Amino acid sequence: MTTYNDIGIKNELDWKRIRKLMILGLLGAVMTFIGDFILGFRTGDESLTGLEQKLSSYLSMSDTEIFISAFLGFIGIPLEGLCYFGIYRLIAPYSMKWAHIYRSGVLGYLIFAACGVHVPCLACVYFYKYSAAVSPATAFDDTIRFGMYFLLPGMIAFLIFFIVQSAAHICAFAKGLTPYPKWCWIFCMPVGMAAAMLLKFAGNNALASAITAAWISIGNLWMFGGSLIMMNKAEKEVG
After folding, report:
1. Per-residue b/e over 2-15, b at no fewer than 16 CB within 10 Å?
2. N or C terminus: which one in the chain shows less Cβ crowding within 10 Å?
3. Model-level pTM greater than 0.85?
């Protein structure tokens, strides 16, 4: 029989602690959402297209906005990651296998999401802003190269762990390996993220851009919020 290291977390439904983790995770998601909203709430140059149009919108960001957006994500994203152990605690009493897989994804999220993706993303914004001031003709190409060196590696690593985490979350809930009803698998990050990304079709719109920039934090708001709403029902059913 395969054994799993429980890293000191008892395999029992400690509802009080799980609820506290969910609430703290919701707070972290709100912090990150504000930072992402600050980053995204702007429109790009209509004469440009694609990524170049998106980058052009950041020319209007002040250094203070760049710092606040980076800082809120730097704090909020690890807080979200730590609070995923509330989900881990829901899965562990029913399946250590899926809890272990889920935990692997969480650890990758903690390592790469903030310092590997969010902060380097703001560094690219800062780089582009000042590159455009010095050399508008080469700023876009220079920023793409900067991003490939310092943002892309962390983004790839993050994506791998995110897929592992999300797949384990969906599978565990859909298989009934939590105290929640099986249909509660919908309270996972990808569902909330997909809903937010529908606004991509709204075009070059400041509000739509802000919401889509915050797609991961919206996924977290959806996950923690839905899990909290259903918690009382789940607790009553399992006793």
Report:
1. eeeeeeeeeeebeb
2. N
3. yes
